[in-house]
Structure formats: C-alpha cells, structure tokens
Amino acid sequence: MTATIPESLGALRALVEPSIRGAIDRLDSHCRLVSGYHLGYWQVDGTPTDGGGKGMRAAFTLLGARAAGARPDRAVPAAAAVELVHNYSLLHDDVMDRDAERRHRPSAWAAYGEADAILAGDALLGLAFELLAEAAEPTATWALRTLSVTVRRLVAGQTADLRFERRDDVTLDECLEMVRGKTAALFACSCSIGAMLCDAPAETTLRLARYGEHLGVAFQLVDDLLGIWGTPEVTGKPVLHDLQSRKKSIPVVYALGAGVAAADRLRELYLAPGELTGEQLAEAAALVEAAGGRSWTEHEAGRQLDLALAQLDEIDELAGGDDAAPAPLPADVRAELIDLAHFVTGRDR
C-alpha cells in the first residue's frame, strides 16, 4: 500500500462531494439534518464538521471511467449514486444490528431515533436513482438497471445475514454467498458502473465488475477479522464486538464447522444465553483461532485480492484485435486500482 492512497481518495472524493451535498439539499429540513449527520457533514444539532467518509466506492467509479478512456467527471452521477446507496445500507444496517456507534460517534438512529434513520436511508436510496437518471449519457438506462439489480442483491445478502442469526447450522458456502450479495455486489457495481456510463467495451466493464466482486469479498473477510481482532480505534466498535453479538462471521462459521474440540466449545459459547463475560469473549476469540478460522480467512482474503488483480491483467491481455476489444488500461489507472485494492483490504482501515 502506498502512502499517497488517502490523498488519492481525497482528490477523487472532491469531485463527487458537491453532487452528494447538492442531493442532500433537496431533502426536507429534518431528513437533510439526519442524512448530513450520518454522512459526517455536521453534528447532531447541525453544526458543521470537517468529517465525511473515505468515498472508496465513488473513487472506484471514477477510476472506472478513466479505465474507459473518459474524463472522470462524466461518471460523477454514478459515483455519487453508489455512495448514496452505500450510506442508505449503513443507515438501515445500524438499526437492524443495533449498532449505536459509527465512525466513533453515535449512529444516526442512536442520535435521532430509529424511524428518522430508516427514513433518511430511504431518502438516500431515492436520491441515488434520481441523480443517475439525470445523467446526460445514453447509457444511463443501463447504469440505472445495474444499480437496481445491485440493491436487490444487497437486500438479499442482508436478509440472509439476519436469518443466520437465528440458525446454528450456517455453512461456509452460505456465508460466502451472503457476502457476495451484501458487500461484494456494491463493490462490483462501483468498479464497473462508471465505465458502463461512459460506454466502455463490454469486456472492460465485465472485468472491472469481477475485479470489484473479488475485492468486495476480500474487503468483507478483512472486516470480519477486524470484528474479532481489531481495535476500537480502527473499527469504531467495542473490543470483540462481533463475538458478543454472536455474529456468524466467516472466521466463526469456518471454526464452527472445523470438526475439532475447539469448535464444540465455541458452539457452547455461541449458544449460551445473555452477554458473554470478558473472559468468555477472549476464550471465544482464541477458539476461533485454534479451530483455524483466522488463518483460513486471512488466506482467503489474500486469494480473493489476487483474483481481483488478475482481472486487470485480463483487460490488458484482451486489448487490441477488433473494435469491440478493450483498450489496455492506462498505466496510472492500473496503478491506482492496484494501490486502492491493497488499501481497502489493509488492516488499518
């Protein structure tokens, strides 16, 4: 990971920020207040702040446009749309997961109430489609359909994740399929929709989508590792948060299915009523590691990252030939896609 990545993210987000802020200004005053608070634009009472997310998904969308040989500003409507969809999902997820903190401060539902947070999420979703529909590109209809399918996949993934909480027989394959919907689908969309909006060759768009899907899986695997072994300074959540909430994360599900003594004891702890003590949480983390959950997840995250980067090689290998063949990736775009991939799967997010 290069040291310039945060600066690169900031520069790309600066292209999208005015569009997102302008969209938020279309909302009624209270929904605007809740949405802007969630996005980090101001405090609970509306006092402006210097906050805001990294804008990773928007950055990938703009890079997708550049991969197609287009100016990044042509993809701003799509970049803003994927950021709004992402934040719609976060607003709703925090309510469903009862997460009272996000980005080291009270989540929107904790600050304003569940109903206001849900409605703010609904508003952001509507704004996403509104912005993309306004794009002055002949391919906007295809981009809209892609975003719609992505939201459907995202909802299916979140539904599966919630249902897993009520089951003790979740398989690793089921978990990975859930991740492909809940997390990887939006990554795939983010990485390809900018190229699509700019009328890139189908082979370029397809491989950027595959790059995003593999990267999204790797991202979630790392996130699951951080949910057990990360620090509050990095995750913004209490230590061992995912274990306390009995989350069926990838390391846990792998460990539960390992068929070893550590798996049996871990299952006992996961089925125990009430909150686990600090000692029990530490034991659970050690059991996940002893059963191989940590090492398998780390290895699979690395494998998915390699698969993502291989898609960039395929674009270059297909370059040339007939008019429908993709052009090779510009060297600077390839470098940024590689560096961003390493950044978003790093342990310091």
UniProtKB/TrEMBL annotation:
Signal peptide: none annotated. InterPro entries: Isoprenoid_synthase_dom_sf, Polyprenyl_synt, Polyprenyl_synt_CS. PROSITE patterns: POLYPRENYL_SYNTHASE_1, POLYPRENYL_SYNTHASE_2. GO terms for biological process: isoprenoid biosynthetic process. It holds the Pfam family polyprenyl_synt. Keywords: Magnesium, Metal-binding, Transferase. SUPFAM superfamilies: Terpenoid synthases. GO terms for molecular function: metal ion binding; prenyltransferase activity. The keyword Plastid does not apply. Belongs to the FPP/GGPP synthase family. This is (2E,6E)-farnesyl diphosphate synthase. It comes from Actinocatenispora sera.
